[in-house]
């Protein structure tokens, strides 16, 4: 998907985000549909794959992944209980502003509404640091009962203060106020939900907060599962788990407004490896009330 994105962008499309997102999603959905025809797949673009997409599916398996033993409670899951949430290119807007490493490809798997496995591919990882081409890009994945692969947490800094990731594209007065109330020693402004969740996993930050509606389930499902597999937590601002039940698809008219609303994480998002209860206790009451509907 990362390679497809580059191709579409360099070909000079007037709207590279839209064209890249659509092609990447069709590639991912076609591949998943071919292998798992009875599962529900929900993507940001909600465009069914074409016959040409089905002919171009990725048929290669990863030997490293296949060597892993699937946790016993996930070996006999009924396909009708599975929903796969796909964000083909999270953070493409950030790329156009020069923040290349913020872009991620997100595939999250939920069973009976609970996130159980996820994949986050970061195609431009290492480009800003000037890593050799062969070392650029990374794929992080995890599964409940198995753990996380592809990322190693960094040592914690000596200062011990809260390091908090917040959204660059949706920065607001509310975000500023919440950050102050949480008494963050370091505020990291970054793009892409998948990218900020990777920051938590890598121990670049202690927590990521999005204190408003805005993120969708395809933004969080993959990271939610991986963080849980690593022993952390992903909740709304009230401490409730995010739910990934299937939603009604986009109607034939193509009107996405209702569909997007149904996929919204309307009570905000809070991500961390520990200490989330302490952080929630510091969120202003009026902010919590505004996100209680």
Using brief descriptors, characterize the structure shown.
single chain, alpha/beta, Fructose-1,6-Bisphosphatase, Chain A, domain 1, D-Maltodextrin-Binding Protein, domain 2, 11 helices
Overview of this protein structure:
It is a single chain. Residues 7-14 have low confidence and may be disordered. The chain is 31% helix and 20% strand. The protein is globular and about 50 Å long. The protein folds into two domains: 2-51 and 71-149, 2-Layer Sandwich (Fructose-1,6-Bisphosphatase, Chain A, domain 1); 163-290, D-Maltodextrin-Binding Protein, domain 2, CATH 3.40.190.80. The longest helix is centred in the N-terminal third of the chain and has 20 residues, at 16-35. It contains eleven helices and eleven strands. The chain has a six-stranded mixed β-sheet with strand order 1-2-3-4-5-6. Strands 8-7-9-11-10 form a five-stranded mixed β-sheet. The chain has helices spanning 2-10, 16-35, 51-55, 63-66, 92-96, 173-181, 193-201, 217-229, 257-262, 276-280, 285-290; strands spanning 40-43, 82-90, 104-111, 114-122, 138-143, 147-149, 163-167, 186-190, 207-210, 233-235, 269-272. It is an alpha/beta fold. Its cofactor is Mg(2+). Belongs to the inositol monophosphatase superfamily. InterPro entries: CysQ/Inositol_MonoPase, Inositol_monoP_metal-BS, Inositol_monophosphatase-like, Inositol_monophosphatase_CS. This is 3'(2'),5'-bisphosphate nucleotidase 1.
């Amino acid at each position: 998907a990362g390679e497809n994105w580059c191709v579409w962008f360099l070909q000079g499309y007037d709207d590279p985000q839209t064209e890249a997102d659509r092609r990447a999603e069709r590639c991912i959905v076609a591949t998943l549909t071919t292998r798992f025809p009875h599962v529900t797949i929900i993507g940001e673009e909600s465009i069914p794959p074409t016959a040409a997409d089905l002919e171009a599916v990725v048929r290669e398996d990863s030997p490293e992944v296949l060597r892993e033993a699937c946790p016993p409670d996930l070996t006999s899951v009924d396909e009708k209980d599975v929903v796969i949430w796909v964000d083909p290119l999270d953070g493409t807007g950030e790329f156009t502003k020069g923040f290349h490493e913020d872009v991620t490809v997100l595939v999250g798997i939920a069973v009976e509404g609970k996130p159980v496995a996820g994949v986050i591919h970061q195609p431009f990882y290492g480009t800003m640091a000037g890593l050799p081409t062969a070392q650029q890009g990374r794929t992080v994945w995890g599964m409940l009962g198995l753990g996380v692969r592809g990322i190693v947490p960094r040592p914690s800094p000596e200062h011990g203060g809260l390091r908090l990731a917040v959204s660059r594209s949706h920065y607001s007065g509310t975000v500023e106020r919440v950050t102050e109330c949480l008494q963050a020693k370091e505020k990291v402004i970054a793009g892409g939900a998948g990218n900020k969740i990777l920051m938590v996993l890598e121990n670049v930050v202690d927590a990521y907060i999005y204190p408003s509606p805005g993120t969708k389930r395809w933004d969080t499902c993959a990271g939610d599962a991986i963080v849980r597999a690593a022993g952390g937590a992903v909740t709304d601002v009230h401490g409730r788990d995010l739910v990934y039940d299937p939603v009604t698809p986009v109607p034939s008219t193509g009107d996405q407004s209702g569909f997007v609303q149904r996929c919204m994480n309307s009570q905000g998002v809070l991500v961390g490896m520990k200490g989330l209860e302490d952080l929630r206790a510091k969120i202003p009451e009026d902010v919590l009330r505004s996100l209680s509907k």
